[in-house]
Amino acid sequence: MVRAATPDAAESTPPVTADTPFVAADDNFHASPDGNPYWAETTWWSFNVPERKLGGWLHATFYTNQGFVIWRVYVWDPRGPHREQLRYFRMEEKVPVTDPAPDLRDITIPGGGFSVRMLKPLRDYQIEFADPASDFAISLHFAGVHDPRRYTPGEPPFMDHTHLDQLGHVTGELRLDGELIPIDCYSIRDRSWAPRGEPRPPSTKPVAPADPPQSRVLHPGGPPWREIERERGRGRIQYIFGHAGPDTGFLAFVRVADGDADGWSPLNHGWLLRDGRFERLDKATSVMKNYRDPLTGLSSHMQVRLVDLSGRTMDAEGYTVSHICERADSGSTALMRWDFDGQIGWGEDQDIWHPKHFTRMREALQAVR
Is the peptide bond before 157 cis (omega within 30 degrees of 0)? Predict the structure, then answer.
């Protein structure tokens, strides 16, 4: 069993809100309040190389009460989104964590995983990974542009999660097929800690006929594929961001199921960054409209209208330049090129689906009669 080195610093007498600051101890593991075996702690680092239309991830999920970690490292470009087409993909599942007191501020993930070393609490980190057999290596320095931002618990999609997002200046070097590629971009890291993947208890209610899909749609109408896309209760998650540097950009979570028949979906968490000032989004007026490739069903083009709580606005238009599909028919993560405020920004669209739901949407998108 992995023992958390510190208590959850977010636990305090005052209620936790979006304005509650994180503290230095939040760089480390957090104790599960009830010993839940599905208690999970994540660490995620992203980067991109716009000139190569290349994106990359390093991600780990620690199931601390079960004593194992699942980790992945991958790099993708326009060669193709599937595992056999990616520039690099490695994933290790249920790797035992034998250290009785691991420290997430200075850790090398077991099983050949990446390392994370905190240089300055909540701000600066060094991330390293090497796979000599594949002639592959990454060395990243993440310098936070701002303090990590929190979201009020109990609001979708963070019902039980403590979650942070942070924009950083990411510099370093990628060794890919023997070539050394410099990295110099602005991208996001995030962390969360909460139960994850816990099976639902069996229902005691009598089995009833399944509701027709249309009854799951809050606002019926519009193209059938869009109506399928916004069915409620399907576990859809969409997370978008783009930044042109330390002073301009945005990040948002999309509430697709609350979208209207014209395809505009509200944004319920995130920020607008302009002139170096972050401000939370106005959830009542910020929206996104997505367009999909009729051959693959994957996101291809996106319009975003952002309004923050101080009334500032930004219109952003984005195009996907490369995708990764970690699992078949479950959507993709796309590297996005954004236009906003006369600038070009880079970021991602994380468009996550249940496979059966995605397949239905794609079939409707491809219908010829």
Answer: yes
